[in-house]
TrEMBL record:
This is WGS project CABT00000000 data, contig 2.63. It comes from Sordaria macrospora (strain ATCC MYA-333 / DSM 997 / K(L3346) / K-hell).
């Protein structure tokens, strides 16, 4: 019995089974474990997998090379029976130049592509910035733009890292960035960010178009509606016009009838009303004559009481006014000019700074104080609202404040108001009122007119011929003495407001003598305020737009205050509502009430008006204090 065919069939079956099993492991093994993917060769003689030999790897390399370069003369087949290591080296040396050339070309192409990508990035950034300029405040678009900027920065870093070897990347950037061999994968996030930015911009543009179309449509509807209203109004006007004509004719007829009736009534009542008018005029004339007579008698009595007759004075009232040469009309024009210039030339912040002076505690104390006082308001040199000065004379927040304050004070009849605006005259040397002495002559003129109106003017203090001559030539010392002498003639507690606006206008390098004159004037005012025997309630307000050492030297520090930006209330300013007339009025009324309360308290403890009680019980007259 022969067993040969049976053994052969068994071996064939075993070989087929081994091949199928090995094929299954190669094709399906990676689904179960990565270890089944390790490169290997199935040895049919030993029925097991063994590592691949050099011959097998070289065969794969040559096969791949032959696919890439079919025209190459490199050997395309290897025979296992004549294999030796020398052949392997020969084949490797033959293949190396081609591979190196291929690798160099691939590296150059890759570098060129990276540089081209660098050149394309500025264009993408310009597109993003152009769209950003269209919607600078849109939140969603700004977020997309910020994301684009971050992506662009990361893309530039990745492109730079692709140009460097891996060991050099950490030296340059401090850490290793992920390198993607595919350039399009590196640029893909940047292009995606640009597309998102474009989509957002397109969406916003569409929304703007829709909104614009809606606005245009609504405007067109409104125009059509207005056109219809105009047509209806035109028809109504024609109807009303005809009715007005009819009413006018009726009124004309009624007027003629009333005129006829009035004529009849007038003819009957003319005699009666004529007699009544004559009697009324007679009574008024008699009363006016009696009043004039009483005033003359009282004036003569006051002259006799003073112990001087007018003809014994060294100077008369008319001569004094002639020497002073100050026109009240011109001073009133200065006030009007200052108010007008402030309304025209001051900006809203400057107007607000003038209103803010009301909030200064020092100013409020100055107004409400029941004793004579002086306050100098200086501009803060760092305040952007107050510098540089306006080109229009008098157009300064402090001038606006002073002018409106003076206008407000004019409503209080019991107050004596003295004021002068140096800044309106110092710019022109030909102006006769440009010198500091004009400040004194103007205020003295105000005092003379006020005292004459009150029948209190006395010129007995002019007791020498030299005094008259000094007045005639405008001696500063003489004028200062005259101002004080006239001021002391006012009754006790009479409010006297002396406002000097822009005194730093006299700070002229080409007029050094002006500094001495201004210093003497300020010193005189400070001395008068500090005089405990001064009867009237003197309140001196001096504004100084620019710091001047003369003011700092003459006015005590506690009587100076700076305008500060944080005290401005940002209100309507001068142009909006004026300088709070109600506020000034209420403040002045409160100040007068305080002073009146002090006087009432003294009278309550005394024996009557003008008298107080001493500690020993005796009466003290006002002469004891003067």
């Amino acid at each position: 019995m022969s067993h040969g065919p049976q053994i052969s069939n068994t071996r064939t079956y075993q070989a087929e089974l081994d091949n199928e099993t090995a094929s299954f492991i190669r094709t399906q093994g990676h689904y179960y474990d990565p270890a089944f993917t390790v490169p290997s060769t199935f040895d049919q003689q030993r029925s097991q997998f063994v590592p691949r030999t050099n011959l097998t790897n070289l065969r794969d390399v040559l096969s791949r090379y032959r696919e890439l370069f079919p025209d190459s003369n490199v050997a395309s087949t290897l025979r296992e029976d004549n294999w030796e290591w020398k052949s392997v080296a020969d084949h490797v040396n033959a293949v190396r130049p081609a591979y190196e050339a291929r690798a160099a070309k691939k590296s150059a192409d890759r570098r060129e592509a990276i540089l081209s990508a660098f050149e394309s990035i500025p264009g993408l950034i310009r597109v993003a910035e152009d769209n950003r300029d269209l919607f600078p405040r849109h939140r969603e678009f700004q977020q997309a733009y910020d994301s684009f900027v971050e992506t662009a920065a990361l893309t530039i870093i990745n492109l730079m890292s692709m140009l460097l070897p891996k060991p050099e990347i950490k030296k340059v950037f401090g850490k290793i960035f992920y390198q993607d061999d595919e350039l399009h994968a590196v640029l893909a996030p940047l292009k995606a960010a640009v597309e998102v930015l474009k989509a957002c911009a397109s969406k916003l543009k569409d929304e703007l178009l829709v909104d614009t179309h809606g606005i245009v449509s609504e405007t067109a509807k409104g125009v059509n509606l207005i056109r219809g209203i105009i047509v209806e109004a035109k028809c109504g006007i024609s109807t009303v016009s005809s009715k007005i004509d009819a009413i006018q004719e009726s009124m004309d007829r009624q007027y003629q009838e009333m005129k006829r009736q009035v004529s009849l009534q007038a003819s009957n009542a003319a005699q009666f009303y004529g007699i009544e008018a004559q009697n009324s005029l007679f009574v008024q004339l008699i009363e006016a004559s009696e009043l004039k007579l009483r005033e003359e008698v009282r004036r003569e009595f006051e002259l006799l009481r003073a112990g001087h007759a007018e003809d014994t004075h060294w100077i008369s009232e008319g001569e004094l006014l002639t020497f002073l040469n100050a026109s009240p009309t011109d001073l009133s024009k200065d006030l009007e000019r200052s108010v007008t210039s402030s309304l025209i030339s001051l900006s809203p912040p400057q107007q607000a700074s003038a209103q803010g002076i009301l909030n200064l505690p020092a100013f409020q104390r100055w107004v409400c104080a029941d004793v004579p006082d002086i306050l100098c308001i200086e501009s803060n040199p760092t305040d952007e609202y107050l510098s540089p000065p306006s080109t229009i004379a008098g157009a300064h927040p402090l001038s606006a404040f002073s002018a409106n304050f003076i206008a407000t004070l004019s409503g209080h009849r019991d107050a004596v108001i003295l004021y002068f605006f140096p800044s309106l005259h110092t710019s022109d040397y030909n102006d006769p009122q440009s010198e500091p002495r004009t400040l004194l002559t103007s205020m003295i003129t105000f005092l003379v007119l006020e005292l004459r109106q009150r029948n209190l003017l006395r010129l007995s203090f002019v007791d020498k011929r030299q005094y008259v001559r000094d007045l005639q030539y405008g001696n500063i010392a003489c004028l200062c003495h005259t101002f004080g002498a006239l001021l002391r003639q006012l009754p006790r507690d009479t409010p006297v407001y002396c406002i000097i606006d822009g005194i730093s206008s006299y700070d002229r390098s080409d007029r050094p003598s002006w500094q001495d004159d201004v210093a003497r004037i300020l010193s005189t005012l400070v001395d008068l305020v500090g005089d405990g025997e001064l009867r009237p309630m003197l309140k001196v307000l001096v504004t100084c737009p620019f710091r001047w050492e003369v003011v700092e030297r003459c006015v005590p520090e506690q009587n100076r205050v700076y305008t500060m930006a944080n005290l401005l209330d940002g209100g309507g300013g001068v142009a909006g509502s004026g300088i709070s007339t109600e506020f000034f009025g209420g403040m002045l009324d409160r100040a007068h009430e305080v002073r009146a309360g002090v006087s009432d308290y003294g009278r309550a403890r005394g024996a009557g008006d003008g008298y107080f009680r001493k500690e020993d019980g005796g009466e003290v007259t006002e002469d004891d204090y003067t």
